[in-house]
Amino acid sequence: MTGQVYRLHSTLELPLENVYDYFEGDPDLPPKITSVDITRRKNTLIISAVADDDSISKYTPTAQLKASISETRVYTEEEQKRREGPRWSDDVDEEEEDDEPMGELIEVAAFKGDRETVLQNTALQYPMFLVLCDIARLAEKGTLTAITEVDGELQATRIVDGEDRPASIEVVEGPTSSDSGSSGVDWRDNEFI
Fold first, then answer.
1. Phi/psi at 49 (nearest 5 deg)?
2. DSSP string covering 79-127
3. Coil, strand or helix at 23
4. Confidence at residue 109, expressed as pLDDT on a 0 to 100 scale
5. Which end of the chain is more exposed for a tag (fewer CB within 10 A), N or C?
6. Over 60: is that where the pLDDT of 181 sits?
């Protein structure tokens, strides 16, 4: 199976721990990928494909997924209700509770951006796109949309909040040469060039 990724846009967010758990759980990786290397550089997570093909040089950069890492607080339902409820300044007990932070501080991996931002390098790009789709199915928040080509046929992908959704490709005509006569400069017939 051969494929290519033409367009991709992602707004996926999921706990960093879930990303590590997914890869430690020995997932079924797409053909041509033996394993992945996970590297963290400060606030960036890089997941690189390791090719099973010896013909790919060790100096050829294989496709990689890139996510930014940030910290966020996650609240239980009870804590969320308390945060959104009314606050009374006379209540001493509540002031003591405010000194103690509510919620749990977790690290979140955000796969956000277009193809060049989230999915980099061309060697093994389509198999790594399939890995990104698996990660998208784990995410409770965010959307992944893409247009890919598999064995000569265009395919649309849309995953919203961890669930596959119907998607279609709409081909529209661009402006014709007769429409663009009045706007812009005609560089071919410009006497000043």
1. -80, 140
2. HHHHHHS---TT-HHHHHHHHSPPSEEEEEEEEEEEHHHHEE-SBTHHH
3. helix
4. 95
5. C
6. no
